């Protein structure tokens, strides 16, 4: 089967899920054609079943804003025809689902039928998509996709609450490829980061406002006041400067390291003791799941789909958004006793195993096969 995957190429979130899904499908002998405006971050290897098609941005003086959706739709038409694409799977509704629908209609007129699967990831529904600027197009795109999936029960509920939906939404959770995300022996990393055997806390994100990274720093300041510890901040984004200023103000700058964007995140997670996720909204929290796969328990907010991943009192703890004291108290409970920490670490791994790619991939295959039967 030939599958087209339309996604963002960026680190984290929907782009990572799309890329990992494509890689896994290619390993099962599907031909996978990625369509994006640049090479997805984790698509940095050779596989004879994987193809990448770049959407080249056409610049013209009249276009203050390049009409990306139109360019993407035209590219999809071309790729579907040239590569006999059987299924087009788009990740993140805006503008991928509407561009795919436009392409589908054009192809239909030429006698080519290509079913569209739209996977909703989070901010395409919760933050950006429900804004009146996008809502009618997002509602239309969901209703006219041939199949729709959401990465958590919570995201499905949000979609039904915020949009006028007549379509069935299948929940297919995000997944972990354990051949990559597994605890590795990296003692030299640990020694370099925490030479006095301090506890190592970590946060990874795109440093957008929705992540409330300032809360990570505030929680860490309360923890560092009580036990020797270090904080690694991985990623980059618009809030980075504000976070750096806050680090200085709170006086914990010397114990915080900004690592920027990291490719081999699993190597760093392997030496960490606790993951902090303080988001305002989070449809799933893939970053937390990746940490758990590397045996790192999670202190998080209880928003969106996070409770479907992080289990209260088992793999970590969940607090209300902004409740810094509660998050710090829970973190100290886990970190203060090595036997408690060990239990949480092993629980985190066990819970992550329920999201093993081998369990989740067949759910997507089932969706594809049902659509093929109907075609
Ligand atoms: O905002 C982000 O974190 C990126 C965003 C995306 O769609 O690119 O991530 C969303 O999708 C991820 C993969 O399904 C989920 O794990 C994240 O929870 C979700 N982010 C939010 O809901 C804020």
CATH class categorisation of the largest domain: Alpha Beta
**Helical amount among residues, as a percent range?**
40-55%
* Strand fraction: 15-25%
Structural class: alpha/beta
Task: List the main descriptive attributes of the protein structure presented here.
13 strands; Rossmann fold; seven-stranded parallel beta sheet; binds ligand GMT; six-stranded parallel beta sheet; elongated; 2 domains; alpha/beta
Would you write up a description of this structure?
The chain has 375 residues and is α/β, with parallel strands linked by helices. The chain folds into two domains: 2-175 and 356-374, Glycogen Phosphorylase B (Rossmann fold); 187-353, 3-Layer(aba) Sandwich (Rossmann fold). It has 14 helices and 13 strands. Strands 3-2-1-4-5-6-7 form a seven-stranded parallel β-sheet, sandwiched between helices. The longest helix has 18 residues, at 357-374. Ligand GMT binds next to helix 1 and helix 4. Ligand GMT is lined by residues 12-14, 17, 92, 121-123, 126, 151, 174, 206, 210, 279, 281-286.
């Amino acid at each position: 089967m030939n599958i087209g995957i339309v996604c963002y190429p960026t680190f984290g979130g929907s782009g990572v899920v799309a890329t990992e899904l494509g890689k896994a499908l290619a390993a099962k002998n599907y031909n996978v054609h990625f369509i994006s405006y640049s090479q997805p971050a984790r698509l940095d290897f050779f596989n004879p079943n994987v193809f990448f098609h770049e959407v080249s941005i056409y610049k013209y003086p009249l276009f203050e804003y390049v009409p990306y959706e139109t360019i993407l739709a035209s590219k999809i038409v071309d790729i579907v025809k040239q590569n006999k694409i059987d299924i087009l799977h788009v990740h993140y509704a805006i503008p991928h689902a509407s561009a795919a629908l436009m392409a589908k209609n054009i192809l239909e007129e030429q006698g080519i039928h290509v079913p569209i699967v739209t996977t909703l990831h989070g901010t395409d529904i919760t933050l950006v998509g429900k804004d009146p600027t996008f809502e009618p197009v997002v509602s239309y795109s969901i209703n006219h996709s041939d199949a729709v999936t959401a990465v958590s029960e919570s995201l499905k509920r949000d979609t039904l609450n915020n949009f006028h939906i007549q379509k069935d939404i299948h929940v297919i959770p995000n997944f972990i490829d354990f051949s990559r995300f597994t605890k590795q022996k990296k003692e030299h990393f640990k020694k370099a980061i925490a030479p006095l055997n301090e506890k190592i806390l970590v946060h990874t994100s795109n440093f957008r406002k929705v992540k409330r990274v300032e809360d990570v720093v505030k929680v860490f300041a309360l923890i560092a006041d009580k036990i020797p510890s270090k904080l690694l901040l991985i990623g980059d984004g618009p809030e980075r400067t504000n976070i750096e200023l806050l680090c200085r103000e709170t006086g914990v700058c010397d114990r915080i390291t900004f690592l920027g964007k990291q490719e081999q995140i699993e190597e760093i997670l392997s030496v960490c003791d606790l993951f902090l996720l303080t988001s305002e909204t989070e449809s799933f929290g893939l970053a937390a799941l990746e940490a758990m796969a590397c045996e790192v328990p999670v202190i998080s907010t209880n928003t969106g789909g996070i409770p479907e991943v992080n289990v209260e009192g088992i793999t970590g703890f969940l607090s209300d958004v902004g409740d810094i004291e509660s998050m710090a108290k829970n973190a100290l409970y886990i970190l203060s006793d090595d036997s408690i920490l060990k239990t949480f670490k092993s629980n985190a791994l066990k819970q992550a195993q329920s999201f093993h790619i081998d369990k989740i991939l067949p759910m997507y295959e089932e969706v594809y096969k049902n659509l093929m039967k109907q075609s």
